[in-house]
Write a structure and sequence with these properties.
Layout lengths: L1 H21 L12 H15 L2 H16 L1 H4 L9 H13 L8 H20 L9 H11 L3 H14 L1 E2 L6 E2 L1 E7 L2 E7 L6 H13 L5 H16 L4 H4 L6 E3 L17 H14 L3 H14 L19 H15 L2 H16 L12 E3 L2 E3 L8 H12 L14
Antiparallel strand pairs: 1-2, 3-4, 4-5, 6-7
Helix pairs in contact: 1-2, 1-16, 2-3, 2-16, 5-7, 6-7, 7-8, 7-9, 9-10, 9-12, 12-13, 14-15, 14-16
């Protein structure tokens, strides 16, 4: 399988470079959605392949993007705006991909990011990918913005719905019921829900900043999620993706994916357990992920494409992270299975490197990190060269 993965990553690299060269003006610069996501893949591919033309191209592309940073991005979000891009720049410098000082640019953009974070707080919008939490992740990564992290902690504490005894904490959001209607829910997911809150709070504790409020919230959020656990032998999954706030409707089978489902919850429980030295939570998280490793049916698990967000590459990424954490063979086997499925999904003659992503009821060609071939290639490169997959911290996995 390694030779097939190498051929595919080579083709993905060629496709991304061709796209960059063909497109005179990039329409999206975001980490998950656009140019800076391509850059992350190109840095790793160049590092491991050692191909001089890619090394020089990547360095030139990085300079081009950084030169236009202050004027090229008009959004604040982690997914497709400044907070995700600035997080990436810190990561690239930490890992010796770039050596330029971008602190002046960061400081210039702080006021804008804080203003938009506070706007999201006023709107009660905590969403990790598109709201306040994503900005908070950047400030937490930077390590010198405690006052902004405190604002987010207060926001989460004040907006949480607590039971009468204060044993559970949960946060309301919404999901799309149909094209014109949203319904209020308690969302357990990584992409837009409580798993991301749990991981954010765990990272705060890991950074050395902790108090009773943070610990209370983290414990309460874990307690709430654990209260929703289902019998895997009966349902074929452990946790629903979300629950309507009015308790209406039947239990819907959750998908296997990075964005929603058991994989999210397992990772969140593991990280919370590490943060608070709670071995029971860690064991539960690993158990949920081991159960998920048994879920191999594509149709039952709603896996129809290869992207990181809700496709096979994202699943492989998570199981590989768990193998790196535990050295358990079950996770190694699951990684290989989902990598093989990722290769199999390359079947479109008119898709970049043979891939397309199914979104909004149609198949789309995309090169992005979250939904396209940059993310697929990044997962493959780390597997092929057996690295520590450090970049998955940008997907909340480590």
């Amino acid at each position: 399988m390694d030779s097939l993965i190498k051929q595919k990553t080579d083709l993905i690299a060629e496709c991304i470079v061709a796209k960059i060269q063909k497109q005179q003006q990039e329409t999206s610069f975001g980490l998950y959605s656009g140019a800076f996501g391509y850059l992350l893949f190109l840095f790793y591919y160049s590092k491991y392949s050692g191909k001089k033309k890619f090394v020089s191209f990547t360095e030139e592309y990085a300079e081009q993007l950084l030169d236009g940073l202050s004027g090229g991005i008009r959004r604040h979000t982690y997914c497709d705006g400044l907070s995700g891009v600035l997080y990436l720049l810190i990561f690239l410098k930490e890992n010796h991909f770039i050596d330029m000082d971008v602190s002046d640019v960061q400081l210039l953009l702080d006021n804008y990011l804080v203003t938009m974070m506070r706007h999201d707080i006023i709107e009660g919008y905590y969403d990790f990918m598109h709201g306040a939490l994503g900005v908070g992740l950047y400030f937490l990564k930077r390590g010198d913005a405690v006052e902004y992290i405190r604002e987010l902690i207060d926001f989460l504490y004040e907006t949480a719905k607590k039971d009468r005894t204060g044993q559970t904490f949960k946060w309301e959001s919404s999901v799309m019921k149909n094209e014109s209607e949203h319904i209020p829910v308690y969302n357990l997911a990584m992409s837009h829900g409580m798993s991301s809150i749990i991981i954010f709070l765990s990272r705060i504790i890991k950074s050395g900043m902790t108090d009773d409020k943070i610990t209370e919230m983290l414990t309460g959020a874990v307690n709430y999620i654990l209260s929703q656990q289902k019998d895997f032998s009966k349902y074929g999954f452990c946790f629903p993706s979300y629950l309507p706030t009015d308790n209406s409707g039947s239990i819907l089978r959750s998908r296997l994916a990075w964005c929603y489902g058991d994989l999210d919850v397992g990772i969140a429980l593991l990280q919370a357990g590490k943060a608070l030295h709670n071995t029971a939570w860690q064991k539960t998280g690993i158990s949920v992920l081991l159960q998920s490793a048994k879920r191999l049916d594509l149709v039952e698990n709603f896996v129809i494409d290869a992207e990181i967000c809700h496709g096979s590459a994202g699943i492989a990424m998570i199981f590989r992270r768990m193998f790196l954490e535990t050295n358990r063979n079950e996770f190694a086997e699951a990684t290989r299975y989902w990598l093989n499925q990722t290769l199999n999904f390359s079947r479109f003659v008119d898709g970049p490197a043979g891939y397309k992503t199914f979104q909004f009821k149609e198949w789309k060609s995309t090169c992005s990190l979250l939904d396209g071939i940059a993310g697929i290639g990044l997962v493959m490169v780390s597997c092929l060269f057996d690295d520590r997959q450090n970049w998955d911290e940008m997907f909340l996995l480590s």
